[in-house]
Amino acid sequence: MTSTVLVAGSANLDFVVRAAHVPAPGETVLGRDFRTFPGGKGANQAVACARAGGAATRMLLALGDDDFARPIEASLHGAGVQLHTVRETGLPTGTAFICLSDDAENAITVAPGANTALEAGHLPALDGVQWLLLQLETPLDTVLAHARAAHAAGVRVALNAAPAQPLPAALLAQLDLLIVNEGELDVVAGQPPDLATGLARLDVPCVIVTLGARGSLARCAGRTLLQPAFAVAPVDTTAAGDTFCGTLVAALARGDGLQHALLAASAASALACTRLGAQSSIPTHAEVAALLADPARVPDAHAHAALAAWCAL
């Protein structure tokens, strides 16, 4: 491995209950299966990056001094992620409470816990790091400080702007790559009337919008790229976006072009939707390669045309 990706972000223990549907406000739903899974956007993306292969993966994270931290660390170590752990004795490890419906929809509430304690000064040395991958489940001031430090050191900076919140121009100025879904694009681009306008409003060299079961759209260096989604029967979409982000940045770190990186990320996120849990659902490089090697499953020219028409391109 000649490239290194550093992920700085959140780590949670997910408490997942399956139910017929996600409860409406004030409604009580009788659930069925209950399990815990290692999760958190940062940790999920680190696992996806490590399993994608071709780039060494490191992660800066904050955990409590409690039992909830142990399965998270075990999962990250098992995926081959090198950890830079900030241990918080006064805060619990972050947790997420997830209701997963039979149609693969979910409702998620996060208690950040130790994630809120991640600070600017915790960023490790960036020697040998090619990409820094960030999210928004840690304090925004910390995200900005980490992005500035990496940008100043010549490290390329990717941000997955999730959960959605308005982004200061000072943060956008540090980014090489911004990844958002449709809802996040609405927030960070100020409620644009369409996708093209939203992309044009963001002063970042490369912006990618994930479109769920439709695929993804990218605007990079004046070019527009489309990647239709792989058709799957979804079971749990919890970590699909994180899988996309980690796989994409790993592909870019190992030298793949953006179009192929989008293809690999789309394949990995599709496979993640067919399995339960967050990190437990993220596929390996071999599984993604097997899917890409099946011409019957790779989206064809008709799928590209349909996505272009839906995007009004």
Secondary structure class reads alpha/beta
Q: Which consecutive residue ranges, at least 5 long each, have pLDDT under 50? A: none
* Overall pLDDT metric: 95
Strand order of the largest sheet: 5-4-1-8-9-10-11-12-13
CATH architecture: 3-Layer(aba) Sandwich
**Helix and strand string, N-terminal first?**
EEEHEHEEEEHEHEHHEEEHHHH
CA(first)-CA(last) distance: 38 Å
Overall structural domain count: 1
The largest sheet is: 9 strands, mixed
What fraction, in percent, of the residue positions are helical?
25-40%
How many separate helices?
10
Tell me the CATH superfamily: Ribokinase
- How much of the sequence lies in strands comes to 25-35%
- Strands, total number: 13
**Overall 3D shape:** globular
Pathway: Carbohydrate metabolism; D-ribose degradation; D-ribose 5-phosphate from beta-D-ribopyranose: step 2/2
Protein name: Ribokinase
Enzyme class: transferase
Domain Carbohydrate kinase PfkB: 5-284
Provide tags for this entry.
single chain, 313 residues, alpha/beta, UDP-N-acetylmuramoyl-L-alanine:D-glutamate ligase, 9-stranded mixed beta sheet, 4-stranded mixed beta sheet, 10 helices, 32% helix
